[in-house]
């Protein structure tokens, strides 16, 4: 272990030591064990209640007329759920695109168009929250380490009334355990594991809940995780073809480079460390304040995907590439940290509950990425030259910087839960600021340039940025405001209930700064210094060429629900609801993209049977996605967002929990989804931003006579048609101890990564011609993941053996190319992979 890792482990250990020390000092106090209400007591009978706050009230899950899946504290531990990917695996209605730690996008109920996950993409369609604080950013969901978490709630379908923007198709809520003044408790867990080639990993976690008085307590949580890599960067060479002399310039090449300096087995190791602290102070019987501070840092190396070899790549490289392998030629790494500060005030005004929550989050990300695929695809035949006119090798890399700040405020009022007529409503405000910096670099190119065809060699670099032939230097600001309310009325007490809700929203989104080439670029078809309209420098950029008007809008999202309870254990419901996602500003086209909307029709039931030993919940839904936003890479791999016409998603979601005997429990969740276009995707919009839907030879306008890029009926990408999990747990006595064995299986169908069946080539000999796109990227295959564990526990200690990904399945989570797939795809396609088989032991102690 390196010195830096030792130092970080010591820092995490210092946080955890506070819990151990506190245990020694306060050991005489009554012991309380944190246990989620979502889990039965080990000696109990029947399935226990699952308590959620999804509708901004504390409720039994079986009383909430909505599709909600909740994973409680004990279940999170039993299933070894530690991060974003782990709990997304267990939520069948959700699907993900994953590009490595901290770079994830989540989708629900098939509402996905294959969004390209970068800084210029649409806002997410699924909101993510830590307690009442939004964690949704344009880089994706914040990957909060899961420890001392009360539960994770997944709300499927539009949450436009209570959660608003970016909860268009669903919401993920991570609920933390709160400080408890009534009793001291503490715990730590230590884990060691072996992965691919027996590479060692480890984890240290702990918490302490320390009462300060009868009315105040502090809760401190800390963690450190090291994950070994499982992708090899294999030794290889890459050859760029020779460049002929001409126009007064000297030819060069062929250029052959190697990756001797970066080749390494288990290339993509990572470590995560962080802490969370919360203070709760009760002010009398009715009011309390809870400030919370959380910080987390993730450092990773390499790339979390394998390279799928193509004939063109094999011709350019020396060695073939196999599973779990890439050949990259320049160093790659990522550093991602975030800090979230929040304050929650809870109280009462008369019989009404009042809650005010404010938060401020800051996220910082720095990355270095090999871009040799782009060099091979774009720069062959367009070489760079030194000052003597001789071409130089064109290998590129990207240095990226991302700084995010976000603040939010919410004031909520809730009437008594026992009343026949109930109300919840409030006011909401959020502002997100994204500062984006990316340099596309060719070492040795500063002061040199691309041939203009006349023998001159102008300086191609962006002014003031060494070796940088393309610079993105932008500020993106997203603002939204809302007022919301839901009124619930028991028409027939204990039987028939109706809910009416509506949210008024307003948004104002801006994007400005600089993007593009240097002043003398021979590429300069768009973007860069040649197109600057404001001479004033912009955060280090020489000028501003991105000065677009703001994208603004307002509207309402309604909700209506009707619920009928036959008795306390059997309920049916029907819901109409609407969700939305704000519009925004494009870089390369003046037309802003418009807000999109999701209309949801849903019917379901929730039932308990046989003295609460069997729980069966299910729903069917049909969603209409109108004017939906589609992100894709246009010329020079610049992200463009345009509105497509219409899509429809329909399906069934179900959950069954069964406890046939006291010590044996089965749980299964499944989702079957049919999501597809209901109008062609033409890749064109009218001047007002609305999508063209009648492209082809029958359109009288010659500009729109191209064939559709995806015809009516095309299956939407990313979401599997079928996804399910099955968990079984058996407990048994071993003397005075409790033994257990558990297995968890997850199955997911194969999926496509892109909406388009075909796309236009943007460079090369096929420029302007349609090329197959889904065929280029290929389909992510179906996979089955199996985790097993066994152990013993008693009131103080626990010991466990576990195996994750028992069959060592290669689980592909995302397929992509480094630039436009129709250009880079013929050379390299990448498949993001989940970790391979991991064998480990875990020891825990409670105080």
Search tags:
single chain; globular; 5-stranded mixed β-sheet; 7 helices; 22-stranded antiparallel beta barrel; mainly beta; 847 residues
Provide a descriptive summary of the structure in words:
This protein is mainly beta. It is built from seven helices and 48 strands. The strands form eleven sheets. It has a 22-stranded antiparallel beta barrel. Strand 13 (200-213) and strand 14 (216-227) form a beta hairpin. The two termini are 30 Å apart.
Number of discrete helical segments: 7
Task: Count the beta strands.
Answer: 48
Strand content: over 45%
- Mean pLDDT equals 87
- Overall, the morphology is globular
Rg (CA only): 28 Å
Main beta sheet = 22 strands, antiparallel, barrel
Proportion of residues in helical segments: under 10%
Q: Structural class, from helix and strand content?
A: mainly beta
Unreliable sequence segments: 1-44, 448-455
Termini gap:
30 Å
């Amino acid at each position: 272990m390196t010195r830096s890792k030792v130092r970080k482990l010591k820092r995490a250990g210092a946080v955890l030591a506070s819990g151990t020390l506190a245990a020694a000092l306060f050991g005489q106090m009554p012991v309380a064990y944190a246990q989620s209400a979502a889990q039965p007591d080990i000696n109990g009978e029947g399935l226990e209640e699952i308590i959620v706050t999804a509708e901004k009230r504390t409720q039994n899950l079986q009383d909430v007329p909505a599709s909600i899946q909740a994973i409680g504290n004990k279940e999170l531990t039993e299933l070894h759920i530690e991060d974003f990917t782990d709990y997304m695996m267990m939520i069948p209605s959700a699907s993900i695109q994953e590009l490595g730690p901290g770079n994830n996008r989540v989708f629900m109920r098939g509402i996905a168009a294959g969004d390209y996950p970068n800084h210029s993409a649409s806002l997410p369609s699924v909101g993510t929250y830590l307690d009442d604080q939004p964690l949704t950013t344009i880089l994706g969901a914040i990957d909060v380490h899961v420890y001392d978490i009360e539960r994770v709630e997944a709300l499927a379908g539009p949450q436009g009334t209570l959660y608003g923007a970016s909860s268009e198709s669903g919401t993920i809520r991570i609920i933390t355990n709160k400080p408890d003044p009534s009793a001291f408790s503490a715990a730590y867990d230590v884990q060691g594991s072996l992965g691919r080639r027996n590479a060692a990993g480890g984890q240290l976690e702990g918490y302490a809940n320390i009462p300060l008085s009868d009315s105040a307590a502090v809760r401190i949580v800390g963690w450190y995780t090291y994950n070994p890599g499982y992708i090899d960067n294999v030794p290889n060479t890459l050859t760029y073809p020779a460049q002929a002399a001409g126009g007064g310039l000297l030819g060069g090449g062929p250029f052959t480079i190697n990756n001797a300096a970066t080749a390494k087995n288990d290339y993509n190791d990572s470590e995560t460390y962080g802490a969370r602290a919360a203070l709760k102070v009760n002010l009398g019987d009715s009011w309390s304040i809870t400030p919370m501070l959380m910080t987390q840092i993730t450092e990773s190396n390499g790339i979390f995907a394998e390279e799928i070899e193509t004939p063109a790549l094999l011709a350019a490289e020396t060695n073939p590439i196999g599973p779990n392998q890439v050949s990259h030629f320049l160093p790659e790494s990522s550093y991602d940290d975030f800090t979230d500060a929040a304050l929650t005030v809870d109280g009462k005004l008369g019989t009404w509950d009042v809650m005010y929550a404010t938060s401020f989050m800051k996220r910082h990300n720095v990355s270095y990425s090999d871009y040799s695929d782009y060099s091979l695809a774009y720069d062959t035949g367009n070489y760079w030259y030194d000052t003597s006119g001789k071409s130089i090798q064109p290998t590129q890399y990207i240095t990226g910087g991302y700084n995010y700040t976000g603040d939010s405020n919410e004031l909520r009022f809730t009437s008594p839960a026992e009343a026949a007529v109930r109300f919840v409503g409030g006011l909401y405000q959020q502002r997100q600021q994204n500062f984006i910096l990316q340099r596309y670099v060719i070492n040795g190119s500063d002061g040199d340039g691309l041939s203009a065809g006349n023998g001159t060699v102008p300086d191609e670099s962006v002014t003031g940025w060494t070796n940088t032939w393309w610079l993105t230097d932008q500020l993106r600001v997203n603002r939204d405001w809302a007022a919301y309310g839901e009124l619930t009325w028991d028409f027939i007490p204990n039987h028939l209930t109706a809910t009416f809700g509506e949210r008024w929203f307003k948004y104002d989104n801006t994007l400005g700064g600089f993007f593009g080439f240097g002043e003398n670029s021979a590429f300069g078809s768009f973007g860069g210094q040649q197109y600057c309209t404001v001479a004033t420098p912009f955060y280090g950029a020489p000028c501003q060429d991105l000065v677009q008007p703001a994208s603004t809008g307002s509207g309402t999202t309604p909700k209506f629900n009707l619920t009928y309870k036959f008795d306390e254990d059997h309920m049916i419901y029907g819901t109409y609801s609407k969700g939305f996602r704000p519009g925004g500003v494009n870089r390369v086209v003046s037309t802003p993209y418009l807000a999109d909307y999701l209309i949801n029709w849903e019917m379901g039931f929730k039932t308990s049977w046989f003295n609460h030993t069997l729980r069966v919940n299910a729903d069917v839904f049909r969603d209409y996605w109108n004017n939906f936003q589609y992100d894709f890479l246009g010329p020079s791999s610049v992200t463009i967002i345009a509105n497509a016409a219409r899509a429809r998603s329909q399906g069934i979601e179900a959950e069954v929990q069964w406890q046939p005997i006291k010590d044996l429990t089965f749980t299964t969740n499944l989702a079957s989804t049919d999501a597809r276009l209901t109008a062609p995707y033409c890749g064109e919009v009218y001047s007002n931003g609305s999508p063209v839907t009648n492209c082809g030879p029958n359109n009288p306008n010659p500009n729109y006579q191209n064939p559709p890029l995806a015809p009516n009926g095309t299956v939407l990408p990313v979401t599997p048609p079928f996804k399910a999990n099955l968990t079984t747990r058996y407990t048994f006595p071993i003397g005075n101890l409790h033994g257990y064995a558990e297995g968890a299986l997850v199955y997911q169908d194969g999926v496509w990564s892109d909406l388009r069946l075909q796309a236009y080539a943007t460079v090369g000999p096929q420029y302007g011609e349609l090329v197959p796109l889904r065929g280029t990227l290929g389909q992510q295959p179906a996979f089955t993941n199996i985790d097993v564990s066994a152990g013993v526990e008693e009131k103080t200690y626990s010991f466990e053996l576990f195996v994750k990904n028992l069959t060592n399945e290669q689980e592909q989570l995302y397929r992509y190319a480094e630039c436009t797939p129709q250009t880079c795809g013929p050379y390299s396609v990448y498949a993001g992979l989940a970790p391979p088989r991991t064998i480990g032991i875990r020891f825990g102690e409670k105080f």
